[in-house]
Amino acid sequence: MSSSTNASTWGSPSGTIKFPKEVAPFTVSISQEQLDRTQALLKLSPIPGECYENSLPDGSRKLGLRREWLVEAKRVWEEEFDWKSVESRINSFPNFTAPVPVNDKGEQINIQFLGVFSQNPNAVPVVFLHGWPGSILEFLPLFNLLKKSYPDSSQLPFHLIAPSLPGFGFSDQFPTDRNYGMEDVAFVVDSFMVGTLGLKNYVVQGGDIGSRIARVLGNRYEHCSAVLVNYSPVPPPEGFDFTTLSEKDKKGLERGDWFRNDGSAYAMMAASRPGTLGLALSTNPLALLAWVGEKYLDWTDPLSFAQDRTLPSGARYSRKLMEEIIASVALYWHTGKIHTSFYSYREAFALNGRAPPSSNAQFPVMAPKKVGMMWFPYEVIPTPRAWIEKYSNLIFWREEEVGGHFAQLEQPGVLARGLEDFVKVLQQK
């Protein structure tokens, strides 16, 4: 990784935003030596033979990742995947790093971010917050679409800002002196937006843990004026009449039950034994591919990616999704950050029968703050509108027909339109 001037000038800072001297241009560049070492590890990593659990006769993933998918994904990573093309995608946008406070004592860490800045003096600053096992990669399709829609950056109605969260990607991890959590991340994001970039009024967009951070920002920080999320698991209001639920809501709650009962074992591990998990997954890229790949396969809407390839068993799979998964895993692997990315789970999941110490319901975002929600049917916990309204000044609701947990990656066009419409509503109110 190196810091040198980014070749892209589209949307670079000038006019309404002036960077302080501490903000430095950044270019993603993983050394060939490191890439060669990864290839060697992949080639030497065995895949165990078939068993009932990894090759269920019904073709399902009820008991975890299927062996045949991992065999093919390993082959693709070894023989066809091009990390340098991923670097080019990231570097096609202006990249920067900046020192940002992590607490009120003045301690700082470096945060890497994509910054696409409009020359429009009325542009609305929007900070995009990824989740786990996400990264800034999930915003690239969305940013590309907006770049095509607004080739003249003076017409771009927003500033697009996407930081790698602390402990993820090319950002530094939190200090090791104490436990840091989502409220600390919100402090970092607000310090970055207001203190570093000098933005006194901003919108935050997020899914997964990014949505939790967004709620903390909307709840606690005055300069965050609005929140647009695509994930908002909250409990039902007291006395809620379940007979009023729509068929979509009922199916959504069934999917939420599946996730809690059958799909959340990984989260309990990340919440209760993150030290062990991080050490284990940091030893081998194939192990990391299996761990992360399962999540993408289970959490994305099958309709978002064409099932265009066939495995030896005859099962269909999406080559595009496989490539996105490998890119995501490669980013975690090359930055050495999987072990520093689990901290959010200690707050988000109950342990030993106790309630989670932090939840979205603890951070209502009410007037004068404004909230928008983009609802996707294949989200891991699709939540009824009436429940979200209990904890939100909901001024914008968009219910989609296709899409899952990685909505920015799965449905970038839908997100782009939703963002445009949400900002228009904000400007009218």
Automatic annotation (TrEMBL):
One of its GO terms (molecular function) is epoxide hydrolase activity. SUPFAM superfamilies: alpha/beta-Hydrolases (SSF53474). Transmembrane segments: none annotated. GO terms for biological process: epoxide metabolic process. The keyword Hydrolase applies. Pfam families: EHN (PF06441). InterPro entries: AB_hydrolase_fold, Epox_hydrolase-like, Epoxide_hydro_N, Epoxide_hydrolase. Keywords: Hydrolase. Residues 24-139 form the Epoxide hydrolase N-terminal domain. The active site is at 208 (nucleophile), 345 (proton donor), 405 (proton acceptor). Belongs to the peptidase S33 family. This is Alpha/Beta hydrolase protein.
